[in-house]
Write a structure and sequence with these properties.
Order of helices and strands: EEHHHHHHHHHHHHHHHHHHHHHH
Distance between the termini: 66 Å
Low-confidence stretches: none
Largest sheet: 2 strands, antiparallel
Number of helices: 22
Oligomer: single chain
Mean pLDDT: 94
Length: 403
């Protein structure tokens, strides 16, 4: 273990911080990921998620932990080796939903961090004041004022640099991740294929590795992750391979091929039909996981359709069919996608219901008829408020002309 984690104790963990203060507990937690005791291992993993990746945030201790997480993932003696790889990837990109369906805009990300580094607190305050003043209406202005109220330039710069440092740390370890595409463990191969898709600057090296994997891979989930990553990396040379999977018999790779092809601007009817069907009845995952959007293939399909410039009516209808089948917290992101698909941009106040388009009217009706298990959460209220919709269920139903 000492050789595997060489250099771990050379890092000044006590001088670094995570969500709960000093990161001096990180070395012991990383070592515990090697223990054969599953309960101890899972407790250490959960503690790492809570500390160096707390609710999607990254800290000065996050980036330095990445090389050791990757080393653990690469060592066959480590149990559940996909776990440290998924943790490292999560720290690199945050919530993957925020990057989908387009993928990581790394050029824009680096530009924004450079802008912050060249700025100062006074300049950022002026920029935010101008942003508030540009609000389209009083409701949006209040929302922007609330977001700016707790802004702290020092924290914003530290967070931005910690996020990019974690991303760059994983990118530096991608040669190791590409080697894992040949691992004996299908869960590790799936995690490696998922990871590669978030690093477009490494596409020239990653796409040939994914192509080689797809030549021999038999596991549907590994194949699906590799296909989606191929699309995210703009692998247009692999479109013939994607078309083969789209016409295949395996539901999971067929869905992933459609996702990748749409990302590559291929909008043939079979592509749209596959994604529309997945909105209503997404394919199952009998083997390993498809990691994108936490495995919510319905949501990913809907987001891909909503990202189209002019989605066909039948595809928009399928998104609403899928939304009508959700409940609890699965309704929140699907409602947001459906509203974006129907309205494109928020409008407050909304016009009379009769003046809306057919798709807009149906969207509101489907949301109004979501079950109590969806309407009892504040998360849905926040989404409806953003789009100018009534946040009271009865009022929403009256607006939609429902009993």
């Amino acid at each position: 273990m000492d050789e595997l984690l060489a250099g771990l104790d050379d890092v000044d963990w006590a001088g670094l911080r995570h969500a709960y203060g000093s990161a001096d507990d990180v070395p012991a937690l990383l070592r515990t990921l090697r223990t054969p005791d599953q309960e101890e291992r899972q407790n250490a993993l959960h503690t790492l998620y809570a500390s160096i990746y707390h609710q999607g945030s990254r800290y000065p201790a996050s980036g330095p932990a990445v090389p050791f997480l990757l080393a653990l993932a690469a060592d066959p003696a480590t149990p559940d080796r996909d776990d440290p790889l998924y943790l490292a990837t999560g720290m690199a990109i945050g919530s993957d939903e925020s990057h989908l369906p387009a993928g990581v805009d790394i050029a824009g990300w680096r530009s924004e961090v450079a802008r912050l580094r060249a700025s100062d607190a006074a300049e950022e305050e002026r920029r935010l004041d101008a942003w508030v003043a540009e609000a389209a209406d009083p409701r949006e202005r209040r929302s922007r004022e609330l977001r700016c109220k707790h802004f702290d330039f020092t924290d914003a710069l530290m967070n931005a640099e910690a996020e990019l440092a974690a991303y760059d740390a994983v990118q530096a370890g991608l040669p190791l991740v590409r080697d894992l595409l040949a691992d004996d463990d299908a869960f590790v191969r799936a995690a490696a294929a998922y990871t590669l898709g978030w690093f477009p600057e490494e596409a020239a090296a990653s796409l040939p590795a994914l192509r080689a994997l797809l030549e021999t891979e038999q596991d549907p989930a590994v194949t699906a992750n590799a296909l989606v990553s191929t699309g995210l990396l703009d692998g247009r040379d692999l479109i013939p391979r994607l078309r083969e999977h789209l016409s295949g018999t395996e539901p999971l790779p067929r869905w992933a091929a459609a996702i990748a092809l749409l990302r590559l601007d291929v909008t043939d009817p079979p592509v749209i039909a596959e994604l529309a069907a997945a909105c209503v009845d997404p394919p199952g995952m009998p083997g390993g996981p498809v990691a994108f959007m936490n495995g919510d293939l319905r949501l990913y399909s809907a987001a891909a359709i909503a990202g189209m410039a002019d989605p066909p009516d039948e595809a928009a209808g399928a998104v609403l069919d899928g939304l009508s089948r959700t409940s609890d917290d699965a309704s929140f992101p699907m409602s947001a996608v459906a509203l974006r698909l129907a309205f494109r941009t928020p409008s407050a106040p909304l016009p009379p219901y009769a003046d809306l388009t057919d798709v807009q009217r149906r969207t509101i009706r489907v949301i109004a008829e979501l079950p109590d298990t969806s309407w009892r959460w504040g998360n849905l209220m926040e989404i409806l408020r953003e789009w100018g919709l009534p946040t009271d269920r009865d009022e929403c139903r009256r607006y939609a002309g429902l009993a």
